[in-house]
Structures are given as C-alpha cells and as structure tokens.
Amino acid sequence: MDKLPTIRIGLVSISDRASSGVYLDEGLPALRSWLERAVSNPVEFVERLIPDEQAVIEDSLRALADQEGCALILTTGGTGPAPRDVTPEATLAVADRVMPGFGEQMRQVSLYYVPTAILSRQVGVIRGTSLILNLPGRPKAIQETLEGVKNAEGQVVVHGIFASVPYCIELMGGPYIETRAEVITAFRPKKK
Ligand SMILES: Nc1ncnc2c1ncn2[C@@H]1O[C@H](COP(=O)(O)OP(=O)(O)OP(=O)(O)O)[C@@H](O)[C@H]1O
Ligand SMILES: Nc1nc2c(c(=O)[nH]1)N[C@H]1C(S)=C(S)[C@@H](COP(=O)(O)O)O[C@H]1N2
Questions:
Q1: What average pLDDT does this structure show over 85-111?
Q2: Which of 37, 89, 124, 129 is deepest in the core (most CB within 10 A)?
Q3: Of the ligands numbered here, which is closest to the C-alpha atom of 143?
Q4: Region 20-26: what's the mean pLDDT?
Q5: Backbone angles phi, psi at 129, to 5 degrees
Q6: What is the ipTM of this complex?
Q7: Residue of the nearest CA to atom 22 in ligand 2?
Q8: SS3 state of residue 165
C-alpha cells in the first residue's frame, strides 16, 4: 500500500469563556484526541481558540483554508440560538458552496443523545479546497457527531458525519484519507 499523505486539519474552538480563561478549553483537546484515534494518516493540526465574534471567526476560517492549506476545518461552539452564537453566520460568510447534508446528519445523530439537538444551527461548507464543518460546543458532542451512534455490540445505528468526510475530500480533489474501522469506517462507493 502506498504511504498515506500527511493531512493538515484546522481546529477552531469558539467560546467566549474558554478563550478568556474563565474555564479551561476542552474543545481543542477533544477534537484532537478523537481525530488522532480515527485517522490513519499522519496529521498536522493547526489550532485556534477564539471568542464568539463573527469577524474573528471569519478571519480564522479564511486563514486556515487559504494560508494554512487545511483540507478539513472543524469548529466547535457557537451554533445555538443565543445572541452571541454566530458560528454558522461566519461559516456561511466565507463559503463558496454549502453542503447541507452535514448539518442534517449531525442533527439526526444528536437527537439520539439530546432532545435539544434541533437547537444547533450547524452548517457544512466548502471554501476553495477546504471542507469546513461546525460541531456543537459541548465537548461530548464532538465524539457524538463525528462517530455517530453505536449499539452495545459496537454496530453503527446512525452514521457519524466523519464516515462521509474522506470521500467528500477525495471528490474535492484533496488528499486520500483512511480511517481506523474500530472508531469509524470511511464509506466510499464501489467503483464500476
Ligand atoms: N471550549 C469549551 N471548553 C469546555 N466546555 C465548553 C466549551 N465550549 C462550551 N463548553 C460547554 O458547553 C456549554 C454549551 O456551549 P456553548 O457554545 O453554547 O457555550 P456558551 O454557553 O455560549 O458559552 P461560551 O461561549 O462562553 O463557552 C457551555 O456552557 C460549556 O459548559
Ligand atoms: N451531539 C450533541 N449535539 C448537541 C448537543 C449535545 O450535547 N450533543 N447539545 C445541543 C444544545 S443543548 C445546543 S444549545 C446546541 C448548540 O450548541 P452550541 O451553541 O454549544 O454550539 O447544540 C445541540 N446539539
């Protein structure tokens, strides 16, 4: 098998209180540790911890996509209905194209965990060669939405969104990503 390419992944934790030191940020560590378990490729992380300010979020997303060359950018936080929750607005403002399925599937998955899943306005978009996905702010929601729902035997009940990420990035012309099946299986349709 050919050597897997190194991929650059941008991680953005968006929280007024974590970014100002009121509490310790758990978003970036949760994102990093899940991805380290799930992805077989060597990964370089580029991380930002920022407040819920639309202009700051937009600048961070642009920098990670355009200057840092991140094939994938995951945000956590600021997707709800509170006045300072502006992550979806910032993400849509930098988008070239919207990928509605990611938000739809995340809300499906999340409904298995909390009835308030429908309060997350999370979106998925493409900017240039980067796929940008919003995850909810609660650190436990990171594994829930990426990995999906499994039964007691470990079989998948509802697919996590990461099952679709490697093929999406491949279709976008990005690097080939492989995952560890014990965490998540990357789905690729069979070639004819
Ligand atoms: N980065 C984080 N680190 C640790 N816990 C977090 C983080 N972000 C959110 N949480 C937890 O998840 C809850 C919901 O997240 P949400 O993004 O709605 O935050 P918030 O209530 O708007 O406040 P803030 O932006 O100051 O984190 C928070 O109240 C907090 O308990
Ligand atoms: N998987 C999952 N999704 C979730 C949650 C959760 O705990 N787990 N919390 C919900 C709640 S309570 C809110 S308010 C919205 C928005 O969260 P955010 O503003 O922290 O992004 O995400 C929802 N989606």
A1: 98
A2: 124
A3: 2
A4: 98
A5: -105, 20
A6: 0.96
A7: 120
A8: helix
Specify the pLDDT at position 1: 58
Place of tokens 């995951």: 74
Alpha-carbon distance 43 to 178, whole Å? 11
Residue 110 alpha carbon, nearest atom of ligand 2: 1
Can you read off the two tokens belonging to residue 26?
A: 């758990």
Question: Residue 92 is inside which H or E element, if any?
Answer: helix 87-93
In sequence order, what are the beta bridge partners of 45?
Answer: 9
Nearest CA to ligand 1 atom 5: 26
* 43: phi then psi, degrees, rounded to nearest 5: -125, 135
The C-alpha atoms of residue 147 and residue 145 are separated, in whole angstroms, by: 6
User: What are the domain boundaries of the chain?
Assistant: 7-171
Beta strand pairing status for 72-76 and 97-98? Answer: unpaired
How far is it, in rounded angstroms, from Cα 32 to Cα 109? 21
- Interatomic CA distance for residues 7 and 9, integer angstroms: 6
Share of the chain above pLDDT 70, in %: 99
Write down the pTM of the prediction. 0.97
Model confidence band, residue 191 (pLDDT cutoffs 50, 70, 90): confident
